[in-house]
Amino acid sequence: MTQFFVNLLEVLQKTVPYWGLFLGTFALGYVLTPLCRELARKCGMVDAPSARRINKVPTPRAGGLAVFLSVTMALSVYMLITGERLSPLFPNEVIWHVMGLSAAIVVVGLADDKFGLPPVVKLAGQVAVALGAFFWCHAGFRTVPFFDGLPAWLDCVLTTFWIVGAINAFNLIDGMDGLATGLALIAAIGMGGSLVFIGYPQATLVYLAFAGACLAFLRYNFNPASVFLGDTGSMYIGFLLSVLPLVMKSGDSLFVSLGVPLLAMGVPIFDTTLAILRRSIRAVLSREQYSREEGSTHVMQADTDHLHHRILRRFVSQRKAAFALYALAAFFVAVGFGALALRDRAAGLFIVAFVVGVVIVVRDMRRIELWDAGRLLNAFAHDRTTAVRRRRAALAVPFYVVMDTLLLVAAWFLTSLELSIPITSATCHTHLPLSVVPVFFALVFFHAYSTVWSRARISNYVRLVVAVFAGVLACDATIILMGYPHVHMLAFTALYTQNAFFALVALRFLRPIMRDMFYALDSARLADDPATSRILVYGAGLRYSTFRSELVRGASRNSRVVVGLLDDNILLRGHCIGGIRVCGSLSSAKTVIRTLRVDTVVIACQLTPVRLRLAQKVFAEAGVRVTLWSCEEKELETCQDSTVKK
To answer: Cα separations (Å) of 234 from 206, 209, 314, 329, 575?
Structure first.
């Protein structure tokens, strides 16, 4: 037992700098936060409740000053008293430089919290501090480049972009009680833990100090918050978390220097990327079509569609929303730790993380960013001005020519890789053009570029496959005549024909696929709107196809959504047609209407007069509106010319 306490005492003595710095910054933060809160209140730096803000009562901002002071004071005292290096990866002078630049970004934040700086001025301050981080040298030191061997100018651009991006990422995510602070705490743990994995535990001292200050501030910042970080704190957090990985970069682990920080700051970075995409699309929409209805918008205009706003609308409780985003950030950090632990076997882990990320992105983007993108594409697609239509007509053929050529080249490379044919400079100069050019001329000969592919029929695609096959045969003949045959000729012919055809077909299917995708997004959005008309279509045949085509063409302008189908063909029951389920026949119409909350029935099939009256009676008893969709040919009366003859 005595030996146990001796060993415990030795461990505590060795770890004094670690838990000492953590507890020191925690104590400082715990004491300084209330003081900074009252100082902000007296200086008038208070967030009043508004339509865009979540807080319900006036709350002081600029509380992040306490985080900055806690970290700076604790690290300064440690370095001055002990004289020891904070990290074996860099001299202490580097930390003094970082703290000086941190003070500069805090000044910019305080000015914004007090006076509300214009976005351009605030951005200029951020860029200036980021450039200072790149150019401020000491004994040959400067921030380590993203990749060794980069030109200095490109290194400067990337470093500035990384720092400014991180600053704004935390600035934008700081819109809910405790969110930015909690994410910063998780990011600090992730980045510090990654240094332990690669054998630099002493380098975690700065992250421990920062984590202690964040944890202390979270005591006052978590819901219900009595103080906010403000731009002072959010920009300081973003700056510190972006600069430290650069100055701590170890020569043997680029992933630790950039990969782990990207994962650790994944939530705010993802939110910022979405915000830029969303605001850019809306700015274009505002200029092109929607300015009269929605007013002028621009990229820097704030909105209420950040990640925390969306999750808050789902969870209602700020605490639950914060914990959901904490969990997402912790998942990304766990992925980073797992990759470090698995090392060479990390590919599978990243595939899992990628799949999870794609699911999250699609689920989160489909009703806002993708919907806005659909509106933008639809606005361009339905622009009927003469100049636009002429421009489209002029660009259609060159577009297909360029894309077909690129796809044929890609199909050649893919086929060569599949058959393990060596790709050398000689084959690229001889076999590649001999394979691509004849197929291209075959496409011209079979009128591929005079076909309106948006209205193509099966015969057009049959003609396309014949053109590709004929072109490949011409390729083979040319190669044999010129004396360049190879042992894989037959297999190459079959595989290249297949790859080229599917690539060309995919290009021509791109437009209807995109149109259907945005219609699906439009339907998902409308399904939750109480003002949307919910349609049940009676008839799942060709007339329904024409009805759906009209709805798809009008995507983003619809106020109706098809929620189900009825058809008297019992073989179709339970199956889906165009993504819509056949729920039953006319006999089950009342139950289906009640279950799906239908308000309109569209009859899209040819019925006898007796059957039509029966359907009208059934739908009338269900209390829904009934319309008839029909495609029919009518003879028009001859228009007589009544003008006076000359």
So the answer is: 18, 17, 25, 17, 52
Instruction: Give the model confidence (pLDDT) of 286-322 as tens digits.
Output: 655 544 444 445 556 666 667 766 777 776 688 888 8
Q: What is the pLDDT of residues 566-589, one digit of tens each?
A: 998 888 888 888 778 899 899 899
Please, how many CA atoms are within 13 Å of residue 473, restricted to the half-sphere of its CB? Answer: 7
Q: What is the pLDDT of residues 451-462, one digit of tens each?
A: 877 777 788 888
Average pLDDT, the chain: 79
Dig out the tokens for 46 from the structure.
Answer: 């208070």
**Structural domains for the chain:** 15-365 (no CATH), 391-511 (no CATH), 529-628 (3.40.50.720)
Radius of gyration of the chain (CA): 32
Q: How does DSSP classify residue 255?
A: I
pTM beyond 0.70: the answer is: no
- Is 450 strand, coil or helix? coil
Q: Give the H or E element holding residue 536.
A: strand 533-538
**Is there a contact between 32 and 66 (Cβ–Cβ < 8 Å)?**
yes
Distance CA 268, CA 192 (A): 18
Give the integer Cα–Cα distance in Å for 564 and 625.
15
